[in-house]
Amino acid sequence: MSYPQTRLRRLRYNPILRGMVTETHLRVDDLVYPLFVCPGTGVKNPIRSMPGNYQMSVDVLVEECRRAVAKGVKSILLFGIPEHKDEHGHVACEHNGIVQRAIRAIKAEISDIYLIADVCNCEYTSHGHCGTIVDGDVHNDLTIETLAAQSVSLAQAGADMIAPSDMMDGRVGRIRQALDDAGFEKIPVMSYAAKYASGFYGPFRDAAESAPKFGDRSTYQMNPANSNEAIREVAEDIAEGADIVMVKPALSYLDIIYRVKNEFKMPVAAYNVSGEFSMVKAAGANDWIDERRVMMEILLSIKRAGADIIITYHALDAADVINGQVIK
């Protein structure tokens, strides 16, 4: 049956009916808020390329987490800027590492919060790459030993979830083994399973002070032209014990999110990355777009594509919109 018997606009005239037939719903519970912790006390350094985001010392970070929880955003993804770096990223494994200290401080002050610890070496190596360099490239098998040790250290500090973002082969299985051997079999692993070598990461590298000192990351992050390879990467991580798989970035890879969700039928996270965020903020600041409307449209598109979890720097503003509050 078609027009005039069928008139699809009948479902759009009344706002109550539009709400009843809405297919995709974005909830505050879907959102994860990424935060950057740095040394010092009372530190809140603005990140120039990410308006409204900061490098925060532990004491300031605790208050930001308290603010997030008050808005209903109870899941936090933590990145660290350490006091010093080394060639291998071993500083990330230290008992008193910057993220480990942050986790303990947050857990001591806030009970109703879920802390996800990013596991990678780029913030912690003197060269800015994601692992140990041998012959000018990241050595896969040496690197995953550091990642496993880092994961156990973060779990010991109180992390609720481990999220390896390095894209080394076999790292999920090695991390899972290390966590289980240390008695952390209940700690889930959310793998950055399909992480692309993207130009959208630029502002993050300012925030985390993690730009590579030479070359690029194309030998370990994925080629943006490839789709089937992403499915192979996700399948490998699932076989190694990943509990949640992630696609990163989100907006230019909605097709990958859709494929992963439909092929594997398991929890899928998507990272709405720094460049995607900053473009919206810049266009909004220049009155080129309705920032709030575009923000929500983007997040809904990620959810509609199949993501169960959305990691986004928009998290608190989106929570205000979902909760019916005015963005501040």
Automatic annotation (TrEMBL):
Record-level Gene Ontology MF annotations: porphobilinogen synthase activity; zinc ion binding
Pathway as given in its UniProt record: Porphyrin-containing compound metabolism; protoporphyrin-IX biosynthesis; coproporphyrinogen-III from 5-aminolevulinate: step 1/4
EC code(s) of this entry: 4.2.1.24
Enzyme class: lyase
Positions annotated to bind 5-aminolevulinate 1: R205, R217
Catalytically driven reaction(s): 2 5-aminolevulinate = porphobilinogen + 2 H2O + H(+)
InterPro entries associated with the record: ALAD, ALAD_AS, Aldolase_TIM
Binding-site residues for Zn(2+), renumbered to this chain: C120, C122, C130
Cellular component, GO annotation: cytosol
Residues at which 5-aminolevulinate 2 binds: S274, Y313
GO biological process, one term: protoporphyrinogen IX biosynthetic process
PROSITE patterns named among the record's database cross-references: D_ALA_DEHYDRATASE
Coiled-coil residues: none
Swiss-Prot/TrEMBL keywords: Heme biosynthesis, Lyase, Magnesium, Metal-binding, Porphyrin biosynthesis, Zinc
Binding site for Mg(2+): E233
Active site: K195 (schiff-base intermediate with substrate), K248 (schiff-base intermediate with substrate)
Record-stated family: Belongs to the ALAD family.
Record PANTHER family: DELTA-AMINOLEVULINIC ACID DEHYDRATASE
Subunit and interaction comment: Homooctamer.
This protein's name: Delta-aminolevulinic acid dehydratase
Source organism per UniProt: Breznakibacter xylanolyticus
Organism placement in taxonomy: Bacteria, Pseudomonadati, Bacteroidota, Bacteroidia, Marinilabiliales
